[in-house]
Amino acid sequence: MNPWKRPMPIHLVPFRLPLLAAALATLFAAPACTPAPASGGGGTDSVPPPAAQPAGPTATATATGRTDVVPGLEVVVRDSMHLLRGKRVGLITNQSAVTRQGEHAADFLRRNGVNLVALFGPEHGIRGDLEAGETVAAGRDTRTGVPVFSLYDRTQRPTDEELQGVEVLVYDIQDVGARPYTFVWTMAMAMEEAARKRIPFVVLDRPNPITDVAEGPVMHMDVRNVTQVITGYYAVPLRHGMSSGEVARYFNADARVGAQLHVVPVQGWHPDVFFDNTTLPFVRPSPNIRSVGAELLYSGLVLADGATNVHTGRGTDRPFEYFGAPWLDAQRLLQAVAQYNLPGVRLVPEQIRPTRDPAVYTTYRDTAFTSLRLEVTDRRAFRPVYTTLVLLSEARRQNPERFRVMNTGFTQMIGSTWAREAFDRGEDPRVIQRRWDEELAAWRQKTAPYRIYRR
Fold first, then answer.
1. How do strand 322-323 and strand 369-376 relate by DSSP bridges?
2. Does domain 10-208+243-288 have CATH number 3.40.50.12170?
3. Measured between alpha carbons, how far is 21 from 15 in angstroms, rounded to an integer?
4. What is the pLDDT of residues 115-168, one digit of tens each?
5. What are the φ and ψ backbone dihedral angles of 261, each rounded to 5 degrees?
6. Phi and psi at residue 405, in whole multiples of 5°?
7. How far apart are CA 303 and CA 389, in angstroms?
8. How high is the pLDDT of residue 234?
9. CA atoms within 13 A on the CB side of 199
């Protein structure tokens, strides 16, 4: 496929509001396929300007104080079935794609008359019960009987044979908001295949569970192939602050993928709202992401996880809540990081012993040592990426003979060769962070046209 071919139209599918809000919908809802001025690339972009793309009415608080949010899965059945009706539909999904009542996307769509002919499983599988990196087997879904194909094996994208007869390809998975989390890149690769075969691609959007705040290094494309591209397929920050639909719009236009893209937005979500402050049920997107708090911590601690010999909590009852190692003096590290006045977090020394279970991926198996537990005290002030950079920098400075970068994936995580070189020579993390912030400001400006949800 030529990635620089002329883009095909992108559609932002509007939702319609209930009867009491019909007047408001008339004022604000933008129809699909509204023509816009010709883009710089010579094609036409059918997405209305951002100001004409509201995410819905003012957020409605329920009796519990949570914001009432309707996922794109329910919105498409209610308002946009023309995208799916009478078509042979392939669905990329997993256990996190549920309605507000907890019904799985495959079951919900089939019950509403959608003709599902193929299911595609990302990392961790359709039901989400596989460890990170474990092979996803093909077969049939036990509940629907629909054929299941793996998108986490040697291809990482649907093949021509698997797409045979698919007339619409749909994506519905709850993301966690961090670049190395593989789901949105599974989506991106599937978009490329859909564009190549001229199959419409529909994203049933869901909230970014840790809000629209972006932080950390924007990945440079020249380090994309340092490790698996599925952990960083396109240029976004480590904590990217976008919904899956927004990532799809940005990738489709900026990389000139040319997919016939339709995004069905979330209704009622404002991007400063954390997922556990909505009415949507929390379903673990993968075995080691067990809460919204863990998702927030993961967006920073992933910088250390796997790519260094620091343990981040895998194999304990609190994955992605620890920073430590048997060779690391937790009290000394705690004293060193005090100078940085890290906002929104308290570091608590705590003895842990990762599991001895050989089926669970972890380092320092069945070894007791004192680690620092990251206790978030203020989610909005907390900077997970900067906090992890500080911890890594001080751990390396205190233990130059013991600290190890374990693989080249660290360069992709830290975003660029300049950042990797600065870290290796012991640059002050505040200096690295300032340059990250400069790159992030330019990236925010670049991606503004692809945003759907406004504060």
1. antiparallel
2. yes
3. 12
4. 999 999 886 667 655 444 455 556 788 788 899 998 876 678 999 999 999 999
5. -95, 135
6. -85, 120
7. 8
8. 97
9. 28
Q: Which two tokens stand for residue 177?
A: 């908001």
User: Rounded CA gap, 17 and 268, in Å?
Assistant: 10
**Is 67 within 8 Å of 240 (Cβ atoms)?**
no
More confident call, 321 vs 287:
321
β-pairing verdict for 115-121 and 147-150: parallel
Q: Examine the pLDDT at 292 and tell me if it is beyond 80.
A: yes
Amino acid in the structure at residue 4: W
Q: pLDDT of 215-234, one tens digit each?
A: 999 999 999 976 678 899 99
Cα within 13 Å of Cα(402), Cβ side: 13
Of 126, 153, 128, 155, give the one whose Cα is nearest residue 142.
126
Two tokens, residue 26: 């008339």
Amino acid, res. 394: E
317-337 residue pLDDT tens: 999 999 999 999 999 999 999
> What would be the CATH architecture of the domain defined by 292-428?
Alpha-Beta Complex (3.90)
Map out the domains of the chain as residue ranges.
10-208+243-288, 292-428
Residue 315 in tokens: 């194999």
Question: Taking the mean position of all CA atoms in its chain, how far away is CA 382?
Answer: 19
Instruction: Give first-to-last CA distance, the chain, whole Å.
Output: 37
- The CA radius of gyration of the chain, in Å to the nearest whole number, is 22
Confirm whether 10-208+243-288 and 292-428 share one CATH topology.
Answer: no
**CB within 8 A of 26, min separation 6: which ones?**
none
- Which pTM value belongs to this model? 0.86
